[in-house]
Amino acid sequence: MTKKLFIKTYGCQMNVYDSERMAEAMGGEGYVTTDKPEDADMILLNTCHIREKAAEKVYSELGRYKGLKADKPDLKIGVAGCVAQAEGEEIMRRQPMVDLVVGPQSYHKLPELTQRTHNGAKALDTDFPEEDKFEHLKARPKAKRGPTAFLTVQEGCDKFCAFCVVPYTRGAEVSRPSQRVMTEARDLVERGVREITLLGQNVNAYHGHDGGLAGLIRELAGIDGLERIRFTTSHPNDMDEALIAAHGDCEKLMPYLHLPVQAGSDKILKRMNRSHTAEQYLKLIERLRAARPDLHLSGDFIVGFPEETEADFQDTLALIEAVKYGSAFSFKYSERPGTPAAERPQVPENEKDDRLQRLQALLTKQQRELQDAMVGRDVTVLFEKAGRLPGQMVGKSEYLHAVHVETDQHQRGDLAKVRIVSSGPNSLKGALIPELHTATA
Ligand code: 5AD
Ligand code: SF4
Question: CA dihedral in degrees (186, 206, 176, 190; nearest 10)?
């Protein structure tokens, strides 16, 4: 009998990828996915521990499932992801209806752990085994899939930024061998994928290929039918010459780079243990733009890191002014138990709120300006779905802007050259270039 699995995913793109792979592994056990928790035989929360709010959400979501479990005692409830790794058994103490806790390095054991939960038994696994969990997960079934996919190539981090839980929850940096990545990528392309985003917490530290991440990208670029390659997230100190050069001459590598700097003050960068200065970051951006002048940059910023003064914050604004970001993610510093920054004198909450507002105002303005500056330019769009209006398709440009295009000749997965004709609140509008030619001929 088929059973139903509901997975709720929090946090980063790696969790999205992990959820897909867990669903596939449970498919081998007779589970099909559902988007309704009330229909499920198993509920799995794939959690995020990066900020306090993200972790708290898990407990409030679990609270909501109490009623479901009371009505259906056979319902299995599992917690996966970084909260599972960080809190382990504590989760079952706080929410006794949880049957199963599984850390990110143990997903290959999910079917076995689920079997162990029969008759009310609990199962927990938060080990860091030596083997590659993805090798043990069932192969992706050959079903057709959408035009874009994530592919994890590297996991964990050895950087130990003073605010961050990742080195503790995801463990030490591990790269998957490039042959395995190539096999998975070819399989994705056979199933309809045109764009692959390589994932890693510190993806540009990838060493599963002799030529590093740049070597892997160049090998992937040789796959017929794979049209676009992206990667995220990178650390400035691992941006080597080869990777910078790839941005200049590897056509399939898209001109968009997520390169978090977190802050613009050297004092704060040092206390964050980022091992680079603001000037070194700006120099790096210069080199990247020399290789690829139209590169769109994206970043992550933290405001209100312990002991950040108004002058330090001004340095962050100045760095943002200097770079001009196409998009960005910004957060108030969140104290994470066990990380060095949690021990330092904290910035008051109202001060963090105020800085976040000012920072986001500047980032939104830049994002708007860069999006508006696309009008009149020609881009290539990879269509992902039908638009809201009939005869309209939506896809992403090279720069990751959403673009709406009127067309009756394209479907999901097609690439088309379009000219941007207007810029809306959250997306661009484009016209097919051949149509423009006929219109003016
Ligand atoms: N508080 C706030 N933001 C954080 N990030 C990581 N840890 C914290 C924290 N303790 C942000 C960083 C990182 C992004 C994924 O999350 O900006 O790049
Ligand atoms: Fe966390 Fe990224 Fe720093 Fe690693 S490099 S510790 S993942 S913020």
Answer: -10
